[in-house]
Design goal:
The structure holds 2 protein chains of 2 kinds. Chain A is mostly helical. Helices cover 88% and strands 0% of the residues of chain A. Chain A has one domain (47-257). In chain A, helix 4 crosses helix 7, helix 4 runs antiparallel to helix 9 and helix 6 (138-176) crosses helix 8. Chain A is elongated, with a radius of gyration of 22 Å. By secondary structure, chain B is an alpha/beta fold. In chain B, strand 3 and strand 4 form a beta hairpin. The N and C termini of chain B lie far apart (101 Å). Classes of the chains: A mainly alpha, B alpha/beta. Chains A and B meet through helix 3, helix 6, helix 7 and helix 8 of A and helix 1 of B.
């Protein structure tokens, strides 16, 4: 009895202290963001490993998601004789939901896990402490550039995902299913609103980018410096990022599209 | 520093592709291009029923889009809906006896205001009013009337 109470107490205390450490970590990272601008070369290298290396998986997934949406949407819409609305359906689902969410999930798997493993290993091999010994602040040199790169890359990747997806939907719609391509684009343009849909989608992806990079960097920085600890942190990054993305997506959707 | 320069090129390509994607979404997918705030003038029309007309619905004449609905409100004195429309300045030769009706594009499409020019010599100006209007056709009402009529005819045939 006492034992289980003790367990519960320790669990609660650990959770709270982790939230506290996470917040402190974020604040410290944010305070160094401006010094990143003074050293653009560090940012460039991180934009390469976080953004450019995620480019292929995002574009290919976007293409196939758009194509599948068009195929599935066509079978449902043709039952109502509304095939002309295919473009609206594909674009609305991509721009509002699938673009930000799926690319964020892929980003967490591709870039988030890599960030955690990298930082975790740096900690395990005492490179971070080594830097501190040389009076180099690891936050300034390691964490902040990665954080900024993640926040910049994510909205760009999500926009690419949606754009390639609508093109994929167009390829299937007009190439495979023989739909009128004028109707595909014009109905889309009539129904998709710049402010309500595109901007909100970009805001969503920016929020996801912020949260994923935060989780990934913090899990790496906070990992137990052993090979097992790093592997656990990497798993936690992917799992926690997925939870946060889906939960936040619900909240953001309710806030953005709730009053229509 | 050769590898670093290659990296820079790739990062540049990536950022350019991302921004191009955003531009594509804004211009090709959304209504931003049709949203340009060109020179326009405002006219109002009163309808008995606007059906499913919404703000930003199209206003067209002879099937061509000439403007968009900017405001719809209910006038509690006359019990009519007042629809305010922005018409592009280039179409400033609409006669003042133009008829405005609310149509549906296709059976399930969205509703729009159709302007049918009359024969008057004077034109609608800014803040002008359209006097002749035709309310939206409510499909349920039309079907109801049709069924009622059919039943009536059947009853007459029996007698």
């Amino acid at each position: 009895m006492i034992n289980s109470l003790q367990h519960l107490g320790a669990y609660t205390r650990n959770s709270f202290s982790k939230v506290g450490r996470g917040t402190g970590f974020l604040l410290q990272t944010l305070s160094y963001l401006f010094s990143v601008i003074a050293r653009p070369r560090l940012l460039m290298a991180q934009l390469y490993s976080v953004g450019v290396l995620s480019f292929l998986i995002i574009t290919i997934s976007g293409l196939f998601v758009g194509m599948v949406l068009a195929l599935q949407g066509y079978y449902t819409l043709s039952a109502f004789g509304a095939e002309a609305s295919l473009g609206v359906m594909v674009a609305a689902s991509l721009v509002r939901e699938l673009g930000p969410v799926v690319s964020a999930l892929l980003f967490a798997g591709r870039a988030g896990s890599a960030l955690t493993a990298e930082i975790g290993l740096m900690k395990a091999t005492e490179q971070l402490s080594g830097m501190e010994m040389m009076a180099i602040d690891p936050f300034k040199r390691i964490i902040a550039p990665r954080f900024l790169a993640g926040c910049i890359s994510m909205p760009l990747l999500a926009a690419l995902f949606s754009a390639i997806g609508t093109l994929g939907g167009y390829l299937v719609g007009s190439g495979l299913l023989g739909l009128d391509d004028g109707a595909y684009w014009s109905q889309m343009q009539a129904k998709i609103d710049f402010q309500d849909d595109i901007i909100n989608g970009v805001i969503k992806s920016a929020v996801f980018g912020f949260v994923i990079t935060w989780i990934a960097l913090f899990e790496g920085y906070d990992s137990i410096p052993t090979s097992e600890g790093v592997s656990r942190s990497t798993t936690r990054t992917v799992v926690n990022s997925a939870f946060s993305i889906l939960g936040l997506d619900f909240i953001l959707t309710a806030l953005m599209f709730g009053d229509h | 520093m050769q590898p670093s320069r290659n990296q820079d090129t790739l990062v540049g390509l990536f950022v350019a592709a991302g921004i191009a994607g955003l531009f594509f979404l804004s211009l090709k997918v959304s209504n931003l291009s049709a949203f340009s705030q060109d020179e326009s003038y405002t006219i109002t029309a009163r309808f008995e029923n606007t059906g499913g007309l919404k703000v930003r619905s199209a206003v067209s004449a002879a099937g061509v889009k000439v403007g968009q609905v900017s405001d719809i409100y209910f006038d509690s004195k006359t019990y009519q809906a007042v629809v305010t429309m922005h018409i592009n300045q280039q179409y400033n030769t609409l006669p003042d006896d133009t008829t405005a009706s609310i149509f549906t594009s296709g059976l399930l499409g969205e509703q729009y205001v159709n302007l049918e020019p009359g024969g008057s010599d004077s034109y609608l100006t800014d803040n002008g009013k359209i006097d002749i209007t035709q309310p939206a056709i409510i499909l349920e009402k039309a079907i109801g009337q049709f069924l009622f009529k059919a039943a009536e005819e059947k009853g007459e045939a029996k007698e």
